[in-house]
Known about the structure:
By secondary structure, the chain is of the alpha/beta class. It is 39% helix and 14% strand. The chain has a single domain, classed as 3-Layer(aba) Sandwich (Rossmann fold). Strand 3 (105-107), helix 5 and strand 4 (127-130) form a beta-alpha-beta unit. Helix 2 (29-39) packs parallel to helix 3 and helix 6 (132-140) runs parallel beside helix 7. It comes from Jejudonia soesokkakensis.
Amino acid sequence: MYLYRMPFKKLHPQLQEKLASFQIESPTPLQCKSIPVIKSGINVFCTAPKDSGKTTTLILTTLNRLKFEAVGNAPRAVVLAQDKERAIELYVAFLAYTQHTPLRVYVGHEQLHVDIQKSEIFMGIDILISTPKSMNTLFLMNGVSISELKIFSVDDAEFLVKQSAYAAMLSITQSIKKCQYVLYAEKMHPMLRRFEDHFMEYSKKIRL
């Protein structure tokens, strides 16, 4: 077992084992700054350059929040991605950490019929990875329960500056009463900052 510097040694033991198996010995500067803040449960804007560890941070903090437990049928974590291709990439990345565990990860996108998504989600999931349009359609059709949602993360959130994605995000979050939001991006775009007036109130900004 590798000896971890903070904040890895504060993560769930199964995450520490996974990191050791991937030979990831110590956190990046971004992970040192962001993981303790995200673990506290507050809303966070996390901005850092490409290849600084944002995606791994998203995965680690999501899995740590869910404690590697499968609970109920409704998703307790949502991850929003720009498009189908990126959603599938994130799904594969999550599976590397969740295989041989009880956690159920599901990926949806607009190319997959919404009725199929509804029926598969109904069977029970813990983490839902989706695109803005697909997620919004599910919400409007009551295709996914948000009653147990704990953490909502957005990967490479720059795509939310597009009007359609921005509107979809606002529509989605209007239905969620209580949840932690974490937005990852390379830069803080003025459109992203507008979310502070909606669901990102009292948010912490972490920059690298």
